Amino acid sequence: AEKSVSAGEAKRTVTNQVIRKGFLRVHTGVKLFQAKDYFFVLSTDNLSWFTDSDEKDKKYMLPLENLKIRDVEGGFMAKRPQFAIFNIDSK
Predict the structure, then answer these.
(1) What is the pTM of this model?
(2) Which segments constitute the PH domain (predicted)?
(3) Residue-wise pLDDT tens digits, 33-89
(4) What integer pLDDT is reported at residue 14 of this predicted model?
(5) pLDDT-based confidence at 90, cuts 50/70/90?
(6) Residue ranges of domains in the chain
(7) What is the CA radius of gyration of the chain?
(8) What CATH code would you report for 15-87?
(9) 3-state secondary structure of 10
(10) Are the CB atoms for 87 and 66 separated by under 8 Å?
């Protein structure tokens, strides 16, 4: 009456599990104050951002495959931690 579990079934993982939700600021240009705030959802597979917290109007979805994160120095008066997400395959 015992069932055997194959190695593939034992390694099954939950995909696209939500890790964190909140607001993020996306810099839209090279000028200092050209940025816009969006509501984001970080999951195990991607980072999506929306126009508001209703999560109805998706503006962008960024797959997390081949991405890395690095700390970015904020300005003299920066109050929030800042970081950059970049693709390791970009040249």
Answers:
(1) 0.61
(2) 17-91
(3) 788 889 999 898 999 999 999 999 999 998 888 888 787 776 666 666 677 777 777
(4) 57
(5) low
(6) 15-87
(7) 18
(8) 2.30.29.30
(9) helix
(10) yes
Q: What are φ and ψ of residue 5, in 5° steps?
A: -110, 125
Written in H, E and C, the secondary structure of 34-88 is CEEEEEEEEECCEEEEECCCCCCCEEEEEECCCEEEEECCCCCCCCCCCEEEEEC
Question: 41 with 48: CB under 8 angstroms?
Answer: yes
Give the 3-state secondary structure of residue 9: helix
CA proximity to 13, closest of 41, 48, 45:
45
CB atoms under 10 Å from CB of 51, counted, come to: 14
pLDDT at residue 2 is higher than 70: no
d(CA 35, CA 28): 5
68: left (phi over 0), alpha (psi -120 to 50) or beta: beta
More confident residue, 70 or 12: 70
